[in-house]
Amino acid sequence: MTAHTLRYYEHAELIRPIARNSGNQRRYSAADVEWVTFLLRLRETGMPIAQMREYALLRNEGPATTESRLRLLEAHQVELHNQIARLHTHEKALAKKIATYRDDLAALHAHQQANTPTERDPR
């Protein structure tokens, strides 16, 4: 993750301000790294930043928001399953089109070979 993304995540309230050392460099704890890794996973699965922010703010409120966080993640999981199903459908269509083009090329090559004049025996 780039420093720019980390700053953006801080600004978007996805991560709390990180402790800094005497040189003003951020010092991430293991828990911070685990949280950022989870955020990246959410983002890579297509969760919008606004929804990630909602989740992060709920998380910051503590255990009283566990049910709300669970519902948010369950809803995202349903959307992810739908997305995976759509991707499988698209992949099958792509595989079919690729097979068609391979068959077309094989037929074209066979036709070209059948119509290529052969060298005559010079004897």
Automatic annotation (TrEMBL):
Name the keywords, alphabetized. Answer: DNA-binding
PROSITE patterns according to UniProt: HTH_MERR_2
GO function terms (MF aspect): DNA binding; DNA-binding transcription factor activity
Give yes or no: UniProt keyword DNA-binding.
yes
Gene3D superfamilies per the UniProt record, alphabetical: 1.10.1660.10
The transmembrane residues are none
Signal peptide extent: none
Task: List each copy of the HTH merR-type domain by range.
Answer: 1-58
**PANTHER family membership:** HTH-TYPE TRANSCRIPTIONAL REGULATOR ADHR (PTHR30204:SF98), REDOX-CYCLING DRUG-SENSING TRANSCRIPTIONAL ACTIVATOR SOXR (PTHR30204)
| Name of the molecule in the record | HTH merR-type domain-containing protein
